[in-house]
Write a structure and sequence with these properties.
It is a single chain. This protein has 231 residues and is mostly helical. It folds into two domains: 1-29 and 172-231, Orthogonal Bundle (Helix Hairpins), CATH 1.10.287; 31-171, Helix Hairpins. 78% of the residues lie in helices and 4% in strands. It has five helices and three strands; from the N terminus they run ααααββαβ. The chain has helices at residues 3-30, 35-80, 87-170, 173-186, 207-214; strands spanning 190-194, 197-198, 227-229. The chain has a three-stranded mixed β-sheet with strand order 2-1-3. It is rod-shaped and about 130 Å long.
């Protein structure tokens, strides 16, 4: 087999190895990653805290309403008991009852507003909880799939590395050294030749360079320095 053909095959192996190694790195980074779950859990916790605060505010508002109702009842009982005959005291007491009722109405409106907020917060908490559970189910499925894919990639990489080792053993050490040096510099070490043109730099080859390349021996492009491969 021509040396350049073997080098081209080596390059294809290296490209596939790099691709699989990159994919493996990404998948290993995703394995065990709980960023989305943690964010959803934090959101749920924040909404639950807000709900509890609103419920506490609602209880306080209800206590205020109850307290004012008791004060109104006590003031009205005193007002209509007949025990107070002084007109000024009766007038003051009447004003007090009116003021207490006004405060009570305000407190009731406040309690109603807060209960609306509580109900809205409860819906948000329910939605956030549903979202978290859905993310947890998705995460578990993803983790199982990632585990399978990582295992497959590792097996494939082992096979590719073994194939590479076998191919390298068939080549002379200086040839492999040249290939590795060019690959480190230019990423692509071997360039196809089509219609007398180097497919890497798109420059036409001289007749002598093309003839040497057709021999299957390592010949570098005079323009880009890559090893030329004529299929």
């Amino acid at each position: 087999m021509a040396i350049t053909r073997q080098l081209f095959q080596l390059q294809e192996l290296d490209t596939e190895i790099e691709r699989d190694e990159s994919s493996l790195k990404i998948k290993l980074g995703l394995l065990g990653n709980r960023d989305r779950l943690d964010a959803a859990g934090a959101r749920l916790a924040a909404e639950q805290k807000r709900l509890e605060e609103l419920r506490h505010r609602h209880k306080e508002a209800e206590w205020e309403v109850d307290d004012l109702l008791r004060k109104v009842a006590a003031a009205e009982e005193q007002l209509y008991s007949g025990r107070i005959n002084n007109p000024k005291e009766l007038s003051n007491l009447q004003h007090e009852v009116t003021a207490l009722k006004s405060r009570g109405d305000q407190a009731e409106n406040k309690a109603l507003e807060i209960i609306d907020l509580v109900e809205a917060a409860e819906r948000i908490v329910t939605s956030a909880g549903d979202e978290l559970r859905a993310l947890e189910d998705e995460w578990r499925r993803q983790q199982q799939q990632l585990t399978v894919e990582i295992g497959q990639l590792k097996v494939n990489l082992d096979e590719l590395q073994q194939s590479r080792l076998q191919l390298v053993e068939m080549l002379h050490a200086p040839t492999v050294t040249l290939y590795d040096k060019i690959r480190q510099q230019k990423k692509q070490a071997v360039a196809r030749v089509e219609q007398g043109i180097c497919c890497a730099c798109r420059i036409s080859l001289s007749a002598s360079a093309l003839q040497k390349a057709r021999s299957g021996q390592p010949v570098q492009c005079g323009t880009c320095g890559r090893i030329l491969y004529v299929s």
